[in-house]
Amino acid sequence: MTDRLIRVSETELTAKQASAASVALVLTTTVGLVGASVSSGTAAVIWAIGTVAAIVGLAYRMRRAPSGTVAVTLLITGIVVLSAGLPAVAVISESRGSSSTPAVDAEHAASPVPDPNSEMRAALDKADELLPGGADSVLRIDIDETSTQVYVLDLAAGQSVYANYSRSSDRWYDPSRTPSRDRGESTFRRADLAHLDLTRAAAAVTAAADRIGIDRSFRHASDGIEVQRRSSDRKLVAAFSMSGEEVEVDHTGALPDNLGLVSVDGFLPAAEKLLRSNGIDPRQPVLGGLSYAVYKPTADAVPHTDPGTVKIDIRGGGRSGSLEETVGTFPVVRLEPDTGSASSAFALTAVTAGGIDTARADLVQRRKVATVDTHAISLEIGQDASSSALRQRNPPPVLHLGLGPSSDAYYRLDGTFVRAD
């Protein structure tokens, strides 16, 4: 009788232990799965090893469990893992993914640092330390992956004061001074940047770079953000350099409206807008020359053209000089009053998309241009410098058209072939 009671008591105790072990096994498996799945690196390894060790220990305790307990436990474990564990992993993983930017995008985005606004503020604060009121006499702020630099003009001394913050050492180094030819018109003030959000601008610039076709897959030594007044026109810009190519925003963070310059379809509309914005009627015969190339590195058969850039030479209408605009950057205007004119000047309206395409189609056939180069256009329009043309009085302008790196010929503006040198 006593032996029976002892055996019953041991059986009941084993059943209780098995029940507790079953619950522990279910919870350990589920929690371990979630922990290992949403962790990374060493933490994930620790979660996995700990979970396996706990499962082995619990399984060892259940070796003397009543018949059927193990099967029921495994069934319950499977149900809980499928109904709770896996959904939890999915939700946590999605939440983590949506709250962070993929590493490759962050690495090659327009901003070389996570918070360029903080870097700009730190540079302005440092400017005030370098000179009394230094933040109102800033020449340049440079932000790149390794450092933030600020240049301040000490006008009284005729010097530029420079300070450099190193990210690796987390400190500003002692400032240095050098003679400077810059004067007050080259500087900007803290207040001038009040509406410049570099973080937001960087996102817009990254999107614009992709539309332009800038290859962001590698870093270039010049990559970073540079805030300064341009030497050509003193316009205050933040220039974002990616893979050696630049995109600008103005002091409010606005991009230039000229992304159409990447292709020949946007060439003439951009040229017309550039003329009109400077008070020049595109119907006026005041153009001494006009050049353009699509945004493609191999579109350089015609010399003196730059990718995604329109250049207009003005010779008449009371002014002379040049207008230049490159995709992603603001126009550069160099015009001066001038009463002279050029007899060979022409109007922008004399140039048509149809004439350019007619010439392009002829050049493709004439030079057996490779398919990859058939739209890699570079062109220059101006006075015909051939000996036969120079013997004429007021010869018509000629279109020098290039496709790809080496195919070119000369055409009338309607696309009629003239010659191939």
TrEMBL record:
The chain crosses the membrane at residues 20-38, 44-60, 72-92. It comes from the Bacteria. Keywords: Membrane, Transmembrane, Transmembrane helix. Residues 97-117 are annotated as: Disordered. This is Uncharacterized protein. It comes from Tsukamurella paurometabola (strain ATCC 8368 / DSM 20162 / CCUG 35730 / CIP 100753 / JCM 10117 / KCTC 9821 / NBRC 16120 / NCIMB 702349 / NCTC 13040) (Corynebacterium paurometabolum).
